[in-house]
TrEMBL record:
Belongs to the glycosyl hydrolase 47 family. SUPFAM superfamilies: Seven-hairpin glycosidases (SSF48225). Its EC number is 3.2.1.-. It comes from Apteryx owenii. The keyword Secreted does not apply. It is an enzyme of class 3 (hydrolase). GO terms for biological process: carbohydrate metabolic process. This is alpha-1,2-Mannosidase.
Amino acid sequence: MKMRKMMKFAWDNYKQYALGKNELRPLTKNGHIGNMFGGLRGATVVDALDTLYIMELEEEFQEAKKWVEKSFDLNVNGEASLFEVNIRYIGGLLAAYYLTGEEVFKSKALELGEKLLPAFNTPTGIPRGVINLGSGMSWSWGWASAGSSILAEFGTLHLEFLHLSELSGNPVFAEKVMNIRKVLNRVEKPQGLYPNFLSPVTGNWVQHHVSIGGLGDSFYEYLIKSWLMSDKKDSEAKKMYDDALEAIEKHLVKKSAGGLTYIAEWRGGILDHKMGHLACFSGGMIALGAEHAGEGRKRHYMDLAAEITNTCHESYARSDTKLGPEAFRFDTGTEAMATRLSERYYILRPEVVESYMYMWRLTHDPKYRQWGWEAVKALEKHCRVEAGFSGIRDVYTTTPTHDNMQQSFFLAETLKYLYLLFCEDDVLSLDDWVFNTEAHPLPVNHTNFKAKASVQ
């Protein structure tokens, strides 16, 4: 299968030029470390483990596993994003453990999980966004509004932390995330919406910005997925999801003059008619939730999911490269296109093909495979370079400049979702697995959940 060859190409070049660094820079043929992971290395290794395994790239999987065993050092000193370390490293290690049963992945996940706990030492228990993995000191992002924590960051820990409690027998991880949920349930929601910034000191919203794209996105995804992962026992998560989706549909879902359904952003009551590539996961999410919507709502939500996924496909179809921009607008005459240069780039993001995969599995409409194949051809044509895959700076030119970065999520998510789109439905069946927001599969708990769904 084509995606398997692409994965092998991405991995082989990473291994040759950047093994142990976080990402490959394919044009300069060297590695990139970056400052998101606090001194941790090998982000691409950990992100790629499960993809290599499910694609049956056995030799490559063994190379990755060997690196984790021999070279993956957790005794680091540096400032890390709690969110990124959780979704990429903890998620990747947990998935690798559940797929293979290899103890090394479990022990590394638990050891790293422990290092994240000091971030929760705040007056409300809402964690700060940045933590020094050596000293345990934590603080908020300098750019985040008034020392606040970000909804998509503290709201995207739930799946992984329940599994950390499950595997360690230590309830502290589950308690931390159940407390976050308690704070969110207690706080007043403007129009039923969840703003993006919350103070970890007061537990109040800091600004009334609402987004289903970056800063908000995966919080909503983890509500419906928490319910699915609990084998549909965590009814609190389901209710929070249903209520949030209702508010989103009432206030943010719009239809353009040209008939495209999109989700706008909300700034203190004023709508910004743009949708980010990151928000394109929502088609898949809404379809996943529609399966279990109340009477007569299933069709409604499947239609909404299909319309949003179609809009995201249009953002690809309307570009010269057939890849979509970072954000696209619906204000002027142009629809589903980026208007400003700063939003015209594509960094190998997965959200659009992620929605194709869910829509295919839940409807089996062949257009989703066709759309996925268009994306594969565009990636091969415009993003493949001599030594790997690179993002591009402008999707509206057929001679794009490359950004010299092979993101770890390209191997974790983009190639995995494309592969699954063309697999049989029983490969990582949606009945048995829930994907974290970095596409790392975690098992549905078909037995009794040790981490009880309500912590006192």
